[in-house]
């Protein structure tokens, strides 16, 4: 694609986009929002949906609402399974945060592989995943091997293959790298680990709602993920966990709470895990947080994750082509896989002044984000990001680069980047 592509051409792409009408189902404004891989936009139906629940459910039904609400972790989990994960009913449940869910499933997997002492993970894995594994390894006397990974290209499958031995109990990997967007082959990695008898626990946080992960078809055993990125569940929305149906009765998670107890309202003296995915619950589910997922999933159900992926690839290709033409002369370098088959939904660009550039870009009406050490991360979300949004964002970024406008922006770090 030539770097001199006129703006009118991408406006025409938007006119022909089969997902274009779905943008109206989100709250939008003049802001160009390219951080959907951190926090998705607000679905337009969500405020009234939640207001109705607060007014009629909490306000009127009070405790009488619980016979309905108590089924929501599984009901909404089944919706995510069907529309985003390619999983079966009764395999996905809404519960806690991604971090807590990862801890639960990692501990359960280690318990199910006694005698094996090694855990494998990508050295560039998302921090909370690494920290949790460090803690589990220290508590249990396991060895945590952090596999070297390229900052721009992600983990080389050959590196993982070489590390897979019969002492490996668990492999924890993100399907899409949080920093560079590298996409792993879920089926191939899962099969390789299974050949040596190890479990793979997938973190789908940067994949779900953006990439078709097809958990059943790919033979996945365990997975977790958040719902506030491409699933648009809102800040702090509860996470999900997935356990393949055939494994559920043989795994016991480490946090024995009453929502994971069989016949919980019998108030039995001793813990006995509930059947099915309910055994991976802990405490009272966040009803309002779960409720926000329904309007968001309504939109994804109309779009279909395959069409989302098709547009995501095209948005990423446009961004990379314009970066090559407009930004490379100003010291920017692609920091994501160029091959679209190896790249998830976001694109990272490397520049020594990436932090200040991200701030200058926000001041120009374009929101992306920054990740260490020097990455500008841009995450178009196909349900509401237009092709012209990408063109305009890259045009404004080129203007910032040409004027060196970041020199006018403070360089002091802040808690949130």
Description:
47% of the residues are buried. The protein is α/β, with parallel strands linked by helices and 417 residues long. Strand 12 and strand 13 form a beta hairpin.
How far is the N terminus from the C terminus? 32 Å
Helix content: 25-40%
Parts with pLDDT < 50 across at least 5 consecutive residues: none
SS-based class: alpha/beta
Task: Name the strands of the widest sheet in spatial order.
Answer: 2-8-7-6-5-3-4
Relative strand content: 5-15%
Number of strands: 13
Compact summary:
The protein contains 13 helices and 13 strands.
Features:
417 residues; alpha/beta; seven-stranded mixed sheet; four-stranded antiparallel sheet; 13 helices; 37% helix
List the helices and strands and how they pair.
Layout: H1 7-16, E1 32-33, H2 46-61, H3 66-69, H4 72-85, E2 92-94, H5 98-111, E3 118-122, H6 127-140, E4 143-147, H7 157-163, E5 168-174, H8 186-195, E6 199-203, E7 222-225, E8 240-243, H9 287-291, H10 293-303, H11 305-327, E9 333-334, E10 347-350, H12 354-363, E11 366-367, E12 369-371, E13 375-378, H13 387-403
């Amino acid at each position: 694609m030539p770097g001199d592509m006129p703006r009118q051409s991408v406006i025409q792409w938007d006119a022909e986009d089969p997902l274009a009408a779905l943008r109206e189902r989100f709250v939008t404004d003049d802001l160009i929002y390219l951080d959907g891989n951190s926090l998705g936009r607000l679905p337009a139906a969500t405020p009234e949906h939640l207001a109705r629940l607060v007014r009629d459910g909490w306000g009127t039904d009070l405790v009488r609402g619980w016979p309905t609400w108590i089924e929501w972790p599984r009901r909404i989990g089944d919706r995510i399974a069907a529309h985003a994960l390619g999983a079966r009913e009764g395999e996905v449940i809404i519960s806690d945060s991604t971090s807590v869910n990862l801890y639960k499933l990692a501990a359960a997997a280690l318990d199910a592989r006694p005698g094996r002492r090694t855990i494998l993970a990508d050295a560039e894995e998302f921090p909370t995943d690494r920290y949790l594994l460090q803690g589990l390894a220290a508590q249990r006397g396991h060895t945590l091997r952090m596999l070297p990974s390229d900052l721009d290209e992600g983990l080389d499958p050959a590196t993982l293959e070489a590390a897979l031995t019969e002492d490996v109990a668990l492999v924890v990997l993100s399907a899409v790298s949080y920093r560079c967007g590298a996409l792993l082959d879920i089926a191939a990695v899962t099969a390789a680990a299974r050949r040596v008898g190890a479990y793979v626990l997938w973190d789908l946080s940067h994949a779900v709602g953006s990439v078709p992960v097809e958990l059943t078809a790919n033979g996945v055993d365990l997975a977790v993920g958040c719902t506030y990125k491409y699933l648009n569940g809102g800040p702090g929305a509860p996470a999900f966990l997935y356990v393949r149906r055939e494994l559920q009765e043989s795994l016991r998670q480490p946090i024995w709470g009453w929502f994971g107890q069989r016949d919980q309202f019998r108030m039995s003296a001793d813990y006995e895990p509930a059947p099915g995915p309910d055994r991976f619950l802990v405490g009272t589910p966040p009803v309002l947080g779960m409720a926000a997922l329904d309007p968001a999933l309504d939109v994804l159900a109309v779009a279909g994750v395959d069409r989302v992926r098709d547009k995501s690839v095209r948005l990423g290709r446009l961004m990379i082509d314009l970066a090559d033409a407009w930004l490379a002369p100003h010291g920017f370098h692609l920091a994501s896989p160029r091959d679209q088959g190896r790249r998830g939904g976001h694109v990272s660009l490397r520049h020594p002044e990436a932090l200040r550039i991200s701030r200058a870009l926000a001041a120009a009406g374009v929101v992306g984000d920054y990740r260490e050490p020097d990455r500008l991360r841009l995450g178009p979300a196909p349900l509401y990001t237009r092709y012209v949004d990408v063109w305009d964002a890259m045009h404004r970024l080129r203007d910032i680069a040409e004027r060196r406008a970041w020199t006018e922006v403070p360089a002091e770090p802040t808690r949130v980047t």
